[in-house]
Amino acid sequence: MEVTNNIFKSIGHLQDEGAKGSNQMRLGQYNERLVLSLIREGDGATKADLARMTRLTPQTISVIVNRLLRNGFLKKGKIKRGNVGKPSTVFQIDPSGAFSIGVQIGRRSMDVVMMSFDGRICKHETVQYEYPRFTYVIDEAGRLLTNLLSSLSPYVFQRITGVGIAAPGSLEEWESVIGAPKKSMSDWKNVNIADELRRFTKLPIYLLNDVSASCLSELTLGKHNETKNFIYLYIGTLIGGGLVIGGQLFSGMTGNAGAVGSMPSSVSGNGSPPQLIELASLWKLEKEFSSHNISVDKLYSGEPLSGKSLTLFNTWSSEAANAIAFSILSGVSFLDVDSVIIDSTLPNSYLEDMISKVKGSMKNYNIVGLSPPKLSSGSIGSQARVLGGAFLPLYANFSPDREIFMKLLEPAN
Fold it and tell me: Lowest CB count within 10 Å: 49, 128, 350, 355, which one?
């Protein structure tokens, strides 16, 4: 999986005409973050480029760049030669300038990673489990976190910006859905995961819902960074979603904006229709595989399905696609977004098949008065949640729009 170079791209886009810096001393820190963001977005920039984009004076830019270079956040790249004037140095993000730790707690597994300043994963550990028992998950997260931090050199350790956690909300409510024994997950109720992990580290900890983190990783690390308004769907064990408006991750009043799993799958008739989470989540397909003695691993191996496994997938995906199409058109009618991005833990070929079926199902609805959105596959896939988690500390420390971003985070203090 390839992650594009947009790690410091703001949640609100900065490279338009409004991307202005300030020469006032009180905004020096903002200007440094702005310079880092622009260098990262462009995969390098000269001092002249930065002065033009920020509208700061060449002298101010020189001071900022030299300070970032001296502090290890930037490195000198290639020499840019033009037809006029002296050759210019292109400055780039130094991968060793800062690091972050990401912890993703899932319904079937947990990942702990370390991310470098350029947004690449340099360490990765995974723990599999049948279902997330509270004590086991926290102890394993602490063990992996402790081992990772103790393995670092003093230089790297002092440049760790924090720990970002991507975790689903209300885990205790999904016992029956993921097949866990009754009351085996009740210990998750009213738990502050950040507080639990503080027993293992004094580093700053940031917490965000896992699907919101996935949406954030697509917005900032993915290939759709030019898309400013979109509904984001993530088809995992449980389907979830996010919402981006004006280039910003929109969380809503309670942090549940884009929580499509709870949306009805159709209009009500004889009784209440099932929610989207009941029809379009992978747990339902996994359950079908298991009931027919087919290994669930076959679904994620990337190998072509055939026979009964293909039949089960087609039955599930057709039903799920119709429900997703209904939810998308309902959302578009209110939000008037022009794009929908769908990602998944499924292999890309199955995801593309799913998206094709959603497009087909949308044609069955009367959309007079609506502008059909463009449907695209996500560019990050199964790593979206853990990358989003790992991204949190870097964004909190280096984004020009960190104040907007910090409002999205669940309390972690």
Answer: 128
146-175 average pLDDT score: 90
Half-sphere exposure of 99 (CA within 13 A, CB side): 20
Q: What would the two tokens of residue 323 be?
A: 């429900």
Nearest CA-CA partner of 13 in 332, 211, 229, 241: 229
Examine the pLDDT at 11 and tell me if it is beyond 60.
no
pLDDT at 267 > cutoff 80: no
Distance from the Cα of residue 280 to its chain's centroid: 20
Query: Is 8's pLDDT higher than 60?
Result: no
Among 129, 10, 20, smallest CA distance to 391 is for 10
Scanning the structure block, which residue is given the tokens 């229709």?
273
Asked if 160 and 100 touch (Cβ cutoff 8 Å), the reply is: yes
Say if strands 240-245 and 230-235 run parallel, antiparallel, or are unpaired: antiparallel
- Which H helix or E strand runs over 1? none
Taking the C-alpha atoms of residue 237 and residue 129, their distance in angstroms, rounded to an integer, is: 13
Give the C-alpha separation, 2 to 380, whole Å: 7
**Short-list 367, 379, 307, CA closest to 343:** 379
Which residues, 6+ apart, have CB-to-CB distance to 393 below 8 Å? 100, 101, 160, 161, 162, 163, 164, 204, 206
Q: What pTM did the predictor assign? A: 0.81
Q: What is the 3-state secondary structure (H, E, C) of 228-258?
A: CCEEEEEECCCCEEEEEECCEECCCCCCCCC
As a whole number of Å, the CA-based R_g of the chain is 23
Nearest Cα neighbor of 320 from 272, 294, 354, 286 is 354
The shares of helix, strand and coil residues in the chain, as percent rounded to the nearest 5, are 45, 20, 40
